[in-house]
Amino acid sequence: MRESTVADLVQPAGGLAVRHLKFVGGGLAIVLAIAYLALTSLQNTMVYYLTVSELQARGPSAQPVRVAGTVVPGSIVRSADGLAVTFTIADAGGRLPVAYRGVIPDIFGENIEVVVEGRYRADGLFEAHTLLAKCPSRYEALETGR
Amino acid sequence: MSVPDVGYLATLLALALVIYGLLALALGLRWSLPDLLASGRNAALGTAALLTVAALALLYAFLSRDFSVRYVAENASRDMPLLVTATAFWGGQAGSLLFWAWMLALFTALFVLTDLPRAPRLGLPALLVLLLIQTFFLGLLGFVSSPFERLPQPVSDGRGLNPLLWDEGMRVHPPLLLTGYMSFSLPFALTMGALLRGRLGADWLRLVRKWMLIAWAVQSAGLLAGAWWAYHVLGWGGYWGWDPVENAALLPWLTATAFLHSIMVQERRGMLRVWNVGLAIATFGLAIFGTFVVRSGVLSSVHSFAQSLIGPYFFAFLGVSLIAALALLVYRLPVLTSQGTFDAVLARESAFLLNNLLFTASAAVTFWGTIFPLLSEIVRGVKITVGPPFYQQVNGPLFLGIVLLMGVGPLLAWRRTALPTLWRLVRGPLLAAVLAGGFLWAVGMRTGLALLALMVCVFTAATILWEYHQAVRVRRRAGQPWLRALALVFAQNRRRYGGYLVHLGVVLLAVGVVVSSFFQAETALTLQRGETFQIGPYRLTYQGLEPRIEPGVAIVAARLTVEGDLLGPVVLTPERRVHRHWEQQPVTTVAYRTLLPRLDDLYILLVNWQEGGQATFRVFLNPLVTLLWVGGLLLLLGTLVALWPERAGPVRQPMAVPREVVPSEV
């Protein structure tokens, strides 16, 4: 690093433009790096959020997707240990059988609106690794099953 | 006239008074009429009194269980304990709005009483802006969403609050966050006031810093309380899920943190004025966005809400505020020219610039991810969501950079720092980081990213502790005993050493986040009574079920004993509770305990049980989560130190501290 003098501080060598170039250039490089990081992360982690009918129109795929629907009454079958559950979700466009293993949210139940995330298998079963349940009317509620 | 009617009337009178105050201030400022200005100022105080009456009226309606009021009937029920009934105040939209407006009125009154007399030329236009914001909220409360609205027919019992909200976390988390969102109005109003006046003076710098720091502290406390509530109530073993509503609360916090740092560059060097004004505007915008997201359901979130009518109003308010603020900024650009220039790359200014770049980048990326489903639906017709992995991948490196910068930044001098000087200051902490990394490797940690992150944390902690050590040593040399020397360090430069406490708290928080996210262990298993299993270094024995009945609640508790804690055997009793009216929704109550000496949280949920007493559990081992709460408290303590008013009059230290020991002031 150059020794600075008083004259330097008043009128630094290189001029304003050159010094600003260093800051602008460095800043731009960092911004571009962060933007690159954000875009690649987005591509790796983004998940389609579909309705049941949209999912069925797309067909089975290895790509994880998110689906929202309402739990069909009478379709819930819990395993004996309470750690897994199968059920059917439905919306105006169709029905989808779901198998899930993990923390089951307390508010999960019949006619509750849920969001499941997972894979739509070739045999027509949706294998969920995440189950989010929406509270029917209260302003704030609850998350489990990450 | 009944109490709820008094509350509604008070809201309407408050609205009328605010509008009167606005007119009085506007006319008084335009034609310099001291009587009108004093009257406008009193109107602000009167509004605070009226809204206090309104808030007390709503509280009374809750405590007396007045089910003729729709809001009370929707959020309270007879079997709710009294304390829970009081927290139902902010259980819904209308009450939250009233709370927001009430807090704004109280903060405004505080501002009028403490700061306005000393800085009227800035304070009066700022008050005008505060009253404008109040007008919007009081208008909503008066004509769109009133908590005092009556039901056509009173009901005998209300619906009650969701049992998951009965918890004590509900007593602190929502009001803190609502107050946090609200309090960003003050720095915004001060900034708009300064622009209206046409000058960002020393009074603006002093007041905007103070109020931004207060808002920042409240929002920090709200975020921490939210994380704590999620951790001990929601039962998924974590404390932060990158849910849109959580992100919305983090966003203004991020830009406010950037502001609190870049304002120092303006204070010192007279630079970054436009940028700082922009950050104050952005923070306010994001705070309104947060209030709006929580209350409107515009983004789908597991914090789901009743769909409501207020969304468009909020959107309009946000749009009008931002356009007006930016227009004013552009109009005043000529007076916002920078007084200094950036001289060298290796200088304190650059560290602040980088800090701001990282914080705003984090805010931008988080904002983008949060609204991405909305954007993709508009642009491509498909809803695409991003989950926690996205935020972790992007914010992880940014936050690591911020922690590193927290270590290096304070060592750099203003204007320029010579490389050898910097090397002399960082070599000790670097050595500490390398030693820590070696130790962690030796005890078996092989996760590269976690090792790197922890080494950065150790480096930064070492630089901060070294700074304290230096400061204390100078005063000890002057003959002060150790404790008094430490007290003097804080007393003589509260902002600097309070700030370091905040930094130290953040480092602890970072260590807790890194270790608990990389090394969480989780298992689910079914046990017979008397059966034992091992998780980590701990042995758990399931002793059996203990059902019991409390008023309005049926409870099944499972009893487990844990061996492996330094202080002897521990008993944990996870429960399932079924509340009356909420039979479809049993509440799982987590049992967890922080075990010594490793500070592991053993976190147990009762998932299910059978007739024979066989039970299924989900067990998490969360290492070092305690550091989050300790770090958070340290952060709040540090903020308090930094905020504490300096004693009146010049209090100069008995001996001057040589410049080479204290590289520069924060």
Q: How would you describe this protein?
A:
The complex is a heterodimer of chains A (146) and B (666). By secondary structure, chain A is an alpha+beta fold. Chain A has two domains: 6-45; 48-133, Beta Barrel (OB fold (Dihydrolipoamide Acetyltransferase, E2P)). Chain A is built from three helices and seven strands, in the order ααβαββββββ. Chain A has helices at 6-10, 15-45, 52-58, and strands at 47-50, 61-71, 77-78, 84-91, 94-101, 113-120, 126-133. Chain A has a five-stranded mixed barrel. In chain A, helix 3 links the parallel strand 1 (47-50) and strand 2. Chain A starts with 5 loop residues before the first helix and ends in a 13-residue tail after the last strand. Residues 1-13 and 136-146 of chain A have low confidence and may be disordered. Chain B is of the alpha+beta class and 666 residues long. In chain B, a hairpin with a 4-residue loop joins strand 9 (591-595) and strand 10. The model of chain B is unreliable at 302-306 and 649-666 (pLDDT under 50). Strand 1 of chain A pairs antiparallel with strand 1 (383-385) of chain B.
